[in-house]
Fold these 2 entries.
Entry 1:
Amino acid sequence: MPPPADPGAPGEEGKEVELRPGTPEETEAYELGLKQHSFNEWASSKISVHRSLLDLRHELCIEKKYYRPLPQTSVIIIFYNEAWSTLLRTVHSVLERTPSELLREVILVDDCSDFDHLQAPLDEYVSHLPEVRVIRSPTRQGLIRARLLGVKHARGEVLAFLDSHCECMEGWLEPLLERIALNHTTVPWPVIDMIRWDNFAYLFHGVKGTLMVGGVDLVDLKFDWHIVRQIELNKRKSIIDPIKSPTMPGGVFAIDKKYFEHLGAYDDGMEIWGGENIEISFRIWQCGGTIELVPCAHVGHVFRVTSPYHASVDKWTRNNKRMAEVWMDDYKSVVYRRHPEYLKIDAGDLTSRKILRKALHCRDFSWYLQNVYSNVYVPDLRPVAHGQIQNKENHRCLDATSDPKEPPRLVDCHGHGGSQYWELTRAGEVRLGVEGKLCLQTAVIKKVPSTDIITKTCAHRFANDQPSKQERWVLQNSTVLYHPMTDRCLEETESGLVVAPCEDVNRQRWLLQNLDLS
Ligand code: LR7
Ligand code: MN
């Protein structure tokens, strides 16, 4: 039985806490908490560390009989300067909502925090809790090596990782363990419910809502969410069946310990924060495993209002480069082309990670794009041109913002990419910027096609080469952007960019960078 919640404490049943700091002391505490944690630590500190959550799981999840026997689990929670209340609530939610026969231990890894409450007071607190241990890193290692330290001490058959500001819901672990028991190369992760940073409301995301699996932006290498398409959903026998996921967010997942080690654990050359989740995702898939989102399993996570790792952006970029160099084959050139800063970074020694990839006989990245992550646009490996597009008449550059309401125009060339970075793709699209999501095309004004030029979200084009519905441009004589749909050419006029009848004039000639006409 879980201990009773503190009588009268706010936030029970995962409800929001309605508290506004009133006195100057409260305001000060609120502001300090926000500054230190990027969430409302002051409000969190008022909520019981044993708070209850409404069990809103689908009835099929509640009734389901799980495969037996299920393996025992080491839960690993890493933290760096975590708030007292959120850390303890994470630990108690594990202890109170995990069947004891499945829980081998809870390992807290302190990544060399400075806060006083995380020193002796934490040791003292934990000494009263069964199966909970604190392991301390003598120096700040970053979350990747902190997890590896936790794994070194783990004795369970399965590892379950959690961020240090989570709340596990009833029945969170069994559905994950079942997937591993059935196939040890399956790496399952739960639905991640949002715990709001401001009022700590637990927002349950039910199976009837849109299911979101993990993806990655192939240019910025950021994790992103993808709504699961209806055809995928329909393929399942039951709405509670797992769904394959191309990547995972990284904070909450379970994995067979031997399989994790066999797969090469984490890249211990990665620092502080970021990139490890994409790296392990590519590695799992390319080396024969499977990542699954398991709809019955729920864990809440406090999404911070801002990231506290601004100072570590260079570390993240370096982690990404290590990942790209080992796993992305030629596709890493897409990242580097659009983010030249990557070329200047020394990613360190990657020999052992490359040996690992060989030893595990992993598939190449194009296999992953065709078979696992096939419903996204993959930028060309070798576009026809990329960089600025300069007019030969006035020497100014084609420039557009990410707001399609603002028409593209010609301004002085600044040479910094961004709003002046374009890619002319092999499919004849002219895509804007690092994101490549907006395309140059003709406008329809009051339902009538016009000759004005705008940018608009590009028609979708997937990795497996379906023809695009996007308006096309054809480069002629290396300088003219011919528009077959209107039989006109891109021209710079006094009143802006248009397509006009093709003429042999400099207003219709353009200097494209990095031409590759092969
Ligand atoms: O130097 C550090 N040492 C640490 O121990 C920096 C961080 N940490 C700890 C920190 O205390 C926390 O427990 O690492 C954990 C993750 O850091 P957060 O919570 O500040 O960042 P985040 O929630 O944005 O992290 C997400 O992305 C990371 C990329 O490296 C990790 O994969 C995190 O585990 C991941 N979190 C989740 O996936 C939770 C689900 C939310 C989503 C999406
Ligand atoms: Mn987190």
Entry 2:
Amino acid sequence: MSKAINYKSLANIPFEEKPKDYFYPLWRYSKNPVINRNINRVIDRTFNSSVVAYKGGFVGVFRGDKRNACPNLFLGRSKDGIRFEIEETPISFVDEDSGDLCETDWQYDPRLIEIDGTYYIVWCDCFSGATIAIAYTKDFVTFKKIDHPFLPNNRNGVLFPRKINGKYYMLSRPSDLGHTPFGDLFVSSSPDLRFWGEHRLVLEHGWAWWTSLKIGGGPSPIELDDGWLVFIHGVTKTCNGYVYSVGAIIVDKDDVSKVKYKCDDYLLTPTENYETNGFVPNVVFPTSILIDGDTGRIAMYYGSADSYTCLAFGYIDEIVDYVKKHSVK
Ligand code: BMA
């Protein structure tokens, strides 16, 4: 059985055991949503956000869609990973070379990951269209932004949590200017996070009905003894609009463009009221995972209906087992 490796003990992650008579390897928090609408005076909707463990508690970078409907990134802090205090002023990013303030008024879907003591934020930014931005911080006070590492249009940048054979790896999904009706998963590598190349196609959409329109990366991949567990979102189109589900694949340990398993079943699809109703109905969108290395327990943060922040729980070995058992060619 595969297990996660290289994860520290994190006994205080939010967690609930699987409800009795529930069959599947990812289950929802009984008190979802953890963040409701109108969390403070500035933000109407908080969703598709990321959380890491920091100094005994938790810090998050949150997508906050303000009362003018513009999304920005906001810092939030929490003792328990459930109740967050979210700032009312968006994070200020400065150019890593000049120190000049970088202002963009459309920032969303942040992924936050620690690599060797530095916290990297990867998000979708406005740069003559939507594209992937990268910034980093060591203290959650100063945030330095890397000079335009990606061309537009591209979204869902997801960084692997460590270098592989000396290089950083980023998943992404080339897209269009709007609500892209297509999309496959690509990976690129970089020696320094600034210059990206060696682009490879990882996986095309469409192997399962819930991926029939497009797919994209979710939280940072989880390192296993024999591969990487990559949570994704898959999108299908119905007569009533798009439906976003959570699924997973497993890629090769050294060549991350090689898919070893792709799960035919989704792991979560919108079923609860806070997923099927909201600003954009029928969306579950995974962006972040906390892992307890001792037990293999995970807490997944996902956005629902472009309105709320939610949690789901599971055990890595059980999820890996499910993905392998329900894998298709
Ligand atoms: C995508 C992104 C996500 C959003 C989803 C559903 O294109 O904008 O932020 O959750 O659409 O609206």
